[in-house]
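ARCHIVE CARD
Drawer: 12
Card no.: 0347
Subject: one protein chain, sequence and derived structure
Cross-reference: see card 0346
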Amino acid sequence: MPDPTFLTKSILIVEDEEIIRDTLAEFLSGEGFEVGTASTVAEALKLVRERDFDIGICDVQLPDGDGVQLLRRLHRLNPGMFVLIISAYATVENTVEAFTAGAFDYLIKPVVFDELTNRLKRLFSFQNLYLENQRLRKDLDRRGGFEQIIGSSRVLQDTLNTIRKVAATNSNVLLVGETGTGKELFAREIHMAGPHKEEKFLAVNCGTRPPEVLEAQLFGVEDGQPGIFRTAGNGTVFLDEIAQLPLGTQSELLRAIEYGEIMPAGASETVKVTARIIAATSRDLMREVQEGQFAEDLFYRMDGVKIRIPPLRERLDDIPELVEYFMSRHSETMGKRVTGATSETIRTLMAAHWKGNVRQLDNAIERAVMMCEVDEIQPQDLPPDLLGLGTSLPDTDDLRSALRHYERLHITRVLKQCPDKKEAAKRLKLGLSSLYRKIEELKIEL
């Protein structure tokens, strides 16, 4: 009967002697492993590029290369893959070379199955510790940098690099981005990466209160409440949706930025303030200025250090990490054991339009965890309206094919939103002739 420890584990056997290769494959399959086989270095590398294996069992002597050299290349392709080296002629030199290259263990032919089983149990025990250690290191790295911002896409990392530089200066900052992109989260991380992270971070939404109440909350009242600016001290005041700030209040905010002082309601003298201001908006502030809804002086004061928060559709590579994070959080809150999402679910999520950005994804995963009846989220667990937002990516491991499919979806969506091809090319950052060529290559119907 297969050992439960081995179920769902995968092993790649690289052995040029057919009888040994087939015997090992038959035995390991009977033990519950998923088994792949290769007789050459070239075949082994092809298989590892196509899928991940937990374990490799490699002969030292292969027709087209050396097993130890193959081991080094396997580690470059899949650092989490553990390798056992097997050889009929063990020497101190080649044993040392194998371990130096990163082999976990060394077996002598003929392989004794009981010994192999024991070595594999020991290997999996060590591998579990290794993976847990990697997870803890990742958590520590996150805590040492931007703790709550999940993702490793290039566009997100570029944004975080900009934030690191800006945060250290203690300058006022304007965050622009669509609704649901997490602007307050980024503002908190700027505060925590700044020189006064031990001070208060106080947030206020500029569009949720009457003007007189908002001004009292921000600037305080003589002989009454001190107001957010004074309470924050050397900390940070976060003004969400600053475009909705009443014009009269905007002039008071401009005084706080230019002169570092405010006038509490009912007071006859100004009060000095030192808080950093981080503002955020989902609107086009320049258009608001042109329409007379936003003070031009305040706009230029805030627009000096501006950071654009990317929408989720520009950082689709972050979706698997975000799903894992939200799934873990909601599972714990609900007391459910949901440990993953199927490949089809991830493909569906990566093909959606995400008009509500990360907030919408969070809500979708919360609903999916609630509806999930097994330990993996299925597509049918997702919100019904989400399933109609996009077309699933193709069920293929061919990266070029998947990218081509997504490229077609993306260009088609932009063209639907913007029928003027010259403007569409500008939005896509393509030349007009390049856009026409893409339309023809990808067979996009207009």
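Annotation on reverse: The radius of gyration is 29 Å. The longest strand covers residues 82-87.
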